[in-house]
Structure formats: C-alpha cells, structure tokens
Amino acid sequence: MSNTTGQRSRIWGVPLVYNTMSRNCFVELKKYIHFSDNQKLTKGDKMSKVTPLHDMLNKLLAQFGVFHSLLSVDEAMVPYFSRHSAKMFIQGKSICFSYKIWMLCGNDGYSYHISIICQGKDEHASKELLGTRVVIKMVDFISVNSVI
C-alpha cells in the first residue's frame, strides 16, 4: 500500500486530479485496469498484455504527426525493477536491467513510431544487427505512412 501511495503522489501530482480522487478510489481503479483479455493473448509475444495499447499509441502518433525532413531513430532504456522476461541486460549501463524502446523522432522531439524490443530466439539467429533491423523497420513505417 505504501508503494501505491508513493506512485500516486508521483503520477497524480496535478492538484486538480489529486484532490478529485481519494487514495482508496485510486487503489480500487488500479486493481481493475487491464489493457487486454487474458484469453486472447498471443502466444510467444512477451508484451502481449500491452500490445493493444502500444498499437493504439502508434496509430495516434502517426495520425497526428507531420513528418519532418530530418528524422532520427533513438533508443531509450526504461528501468523496471520487477521480474519480466522481456527485460534486457545491458552491461556497462547505470541501469542494467530494463526495457529497450526505439523511437522514430522528428527534429523537434515528436515521436512518430515507438517500438518495444523483445529479443527472442529467432532474433538472435538473424545475421543483421539489432540497430540495422530497427532502422529498416522504421524506414518501412515511413514509406507506408507518408504521402508524397
């Protein structure tokens, strides 16, 4: 309960929201938030519980973004301290265990596409490096979603 209280103060730091909802209401809502049906999870997809939310976010990012002439592909490390098989170990980083997220961004920082990387057995067998695969995937995304 104390962890939830700390999360609540961080997440709901806006006074309007914080004063609208009691702690018990927040805990009750948090208990029932689910993004997918457990009966319809894709076997082998480590992120299948958040895939519907991820797909919706990418659709909205592409819908409301106007591509710049200068684009970059950037990686971000999202720290996660609990157990999950999609976490990656990266030696030499200050946060060793985390999720790796790649983003296609404009020169103003707007993200057009976000890709969560979960390396499986088939990806280790690929001859292309991870960065090469991600950039090719992002370029394919640009060609599909841009209008010339």
Topology record:
Elements: H1 2-11, H2 15-20, H3 23-31, H4 51-64, E1 71-79, E2 88-89, E3 97-106, E4 111-117, H5 121-124, H6 130-145
Antiparallel strand pairs: 1-3, 2-3, 3-4
Summary keywords:
single chain; 148 residues; alpha+beta; 2 domains; 4-stranded antiparallel sheet; 6 helices
Number of helical segments? 6
* Count of the separate structural domains: 2
Span between N and C termini? Answer: 53 Å
Gyration radius from CA atoms, angstroms: 18 Å
Write down the overall mean pLDDT: 75
How much of the polypeptide forms β-strand, as a percent range? Answer: 15-25%
Biggest β-sheet, characterized? Answer: 4 strands, antiparallel
Order of helices and strands: HHHHEEEEHH
Helix content: 25-40%
- Inertia-based shape: globular
Find the count of extended strands (DSSP E, 2+ residues): 4
Uncertain residue segments: none
Structural class of the secondary structure composition? alpha+beta
GO molecular function: sequence-specific DNA binding
InterPro entries: PGBD (IPR029526), PiggyBac_TE-derived (IPR052638)
Pfam family, one: DDE_Tnp_1_7
Domain PiggyBac transposable element-derived protein: 11-140
